[in-house]
Amino acid sequence: MSRALFPVTVVTIVIVALQLAILSNLRFVGVVVMLVWLWPLAMGLAGFTALGLWSALVAGVFFDTHASTPFGLTAMVGMVLAYAASRLGKEGVGDLDSAAWWVAPLLAAVGGFAAPLLYVIVAFLTLHFATWRAGTIPMMGVNAVAFLVLARPVSRLARLVGNVGVRVRR
Residue 168 domain-assigned? Predict the structure, then answer.
């Protein structure tokens, strides 16, 4: 895990840069696709609990320092997604090789659907009432579809980066 920490951090920072420079300006039905939530979820589905939590923390903190969001909330949602996905990834449920081809995208779509709702609920509980708006429902739908489409390639990247430095016995 420690050998993969640096590559995971670098890829996470690149993903945050893509999120801020490109995806934050692209809107589908008025909604931004949150790649900073998909990346930790994919790390979790690949079975890397600690790396998934780390990537969620790094992505969330860097994203929140550049966006007008409550600080730490993006990281918290990403960590919840990463942890929940890692429980499924450790059991092999979200594995790209042993599970059916549609399982990982379906799990990612569920995460994409739940993440905006979790974000709004926690923001409301922490007295940030401005996060609730009429766009929450479309945000849930757009992120679910985007996560469904992007799940397999992002999960493959997560597995590739998470396995850096792992020796295979022959």
Answer: no
Which range of residues forms the domain containing residue 132?
2-160
pTM for this predicted structure: 0.89
Residue 134 CB neighbour total at 10 angstroms: 7
Residue 54 covered by a domain: yes
Q: For residues 91 and 41, is the Cβ–Cβ distance under 8 A? A: no
Distance (Å, whole) CA 85 – CA 129: 28
pLDDT tens for 87-105 read: 988 777 766 666 678 888 9
- Average per-residue pLDDT for the chain: 88
pLDDT over 70 for what percent of the chain? Answer: 89
Alpha helices in the chain (DSSP H): 2-18, 35-45, 49-66, 73-91, 103-125, 136-162
Q: Domain count for the chain, please give it.
A: 1
